[in-house]
Specification:
The chain is an alpha/beta fold. The chain has two domains: 118 residues, Nitrogenase molybdenum iron protein domain (Rossmann fold), CATH 3.40.50.1980; 139 residues, Rossmann fold, CATH 3.40.50. Helix content is 35%, strand content 16%. The strands form three sheets. Strands 7, 8, 9, 10, 11 and 12 form a six-stranded mixed β-sheet that branches. Strands 2-1-5-6 form a four-stranded parallel β-sheet, with helices on both faces. The longest helix is centred in the middle third of the chain and has 15 residues. The N and C termini lie far apart (55 Å). The mean pLDDT is 89. This is Cobalamin-binding protein. It holds the Pfam family Peripla_BP_2. It comes from Aphanothece hegewaldii CCALA 016.
Length: 302
């Protein structure tokens, strides 16, 4: 049977690509943009949010929808019906990140006549991302060992050189209000030679207060807003300078605040988390690592 795959989140699309199955994709989400060829596919989801609003306004809109028990995303069931998929890959990790498993199951049960198999991803740690890659490959009956071996080899290159003199690093997943970074991000920071602060491995990203940020007073601050590219991160981060305590932070005074493309990296639990690790290594220990992401995936915030 020929696979006809729809991916409803960017990380799933990137997993399919890494497994060599891009040609079997027939549809994807409105946020899927890598590899470039998927941008020509029919779009099967849409957002109920205006993502051009400020960080604060977006957060307010998200909380309002969640408190009303409403989904942030809409599934384009008519398009999915027309595409007649054999498999739909979705997620059950974060209601804010992409359409939920329950919404997809409801749409498939009631409307999609092809009766596709639903594969739901729910990673909180790097190993669970790798397990998802394996599970997707096994479900679709394609090899995965070489893909994972190549990713692990790139990780080993970094961890084998990591220094013991760890810098305290805070990753900010949102700007207003402030959010630390959880899930796999603290793991990646540790692998890159830093010590993650105000975020716990395997736990959802926490809201943090300015008092907590000031008390932590990190050596390095890495800004990686979920869904924002490098230019948008630069635009949104300007509000941080308005806070009276910002200029007193050690990282600010030592010019150790960095902006990243949080949309393409970091917030997509797929193969490019290794790219994210390389970016972190390049930022935290520039004397050890040069991967040429500077200017494309990260820059100094000043």
């Amino acid at each position: 049977m020929t696979h006809r795959i729809i991916t409803l989140l960017p990380s799933a699309t990137e997993i399919i690509h890494a497994l060599g199955l891009t040609k079997h994709l027939v549809g994807c989400s409105h946020e899927c943009d890598y590899p470039k060829e998927v941008q020509r596919l029919p779009v099967c989801t849409s957002a109920k949010l205006n993502t051009q609003r400020s960080s604060f306004q977006i957060d307010t809109d998200v909380q309002s929808l969640l408190q009303s028990a409403l989904s942030i995303y809409q599934i384009e069931t008519e398009i999915i019906e027309q595409l007649q998929p054999t498999h739909i890959i979705t997620q059950d990790q974060c209601d804010v990140c992409a359409v939920s498993f329950s919404d997809v199951k409801k749409a498939v049960d009631s409307l999609v006549s092809s009766h596709p198999e639903i594969i739901s991803l729910q990673p909180n740690l790097l190993q669970e991302v790798w397990d998802d890659i394996k599970r997707v490959a096994q479900t679709l009956n394609v090899p995965y060992q070489k893909t994972l071996q190549e990713l692990d080899k790139r990780i080993e290159f970094i961890t084998s050189k990591t220094k013991n003199d760890q810098l305290n690093v805070i990753a900010l997943e949102w700007i207003e209000p402030l959010m630390g970074a959880g899930n796999w991000i603290p793991e990646l920071i540790e692998m890159a030679g830093g010590k993650a602060v105000l975020g716990s491995s395997g736990q959802h990203s926490p809201y943090i207060t300015w008092e907590e940020l000031v008390n932590a007073n990190p050596d390095v601050i890495i800004i990686m807003p979920c869904g924002f590219d490098l230019a948008r991160s630069h635009q949104e981060a300007q509000v941080l300078k308005n806070h009276s305590e910002w200029k007193n932070l050690k990282a600010v005074q030592q010019n150790q605040v960095y902006l990243t493309d949080g949309n393409a990296y970091f917030n997509r639990p797929g193969p490019r988390l290794v790219d994210s690790l390389e970016i972190l290594a390049e930022i935290i220990h520039p004397e050890l690592y040069t991967f040429s992401y500077h200017g494309k995936a990260w820059e100094v915030f000043s």
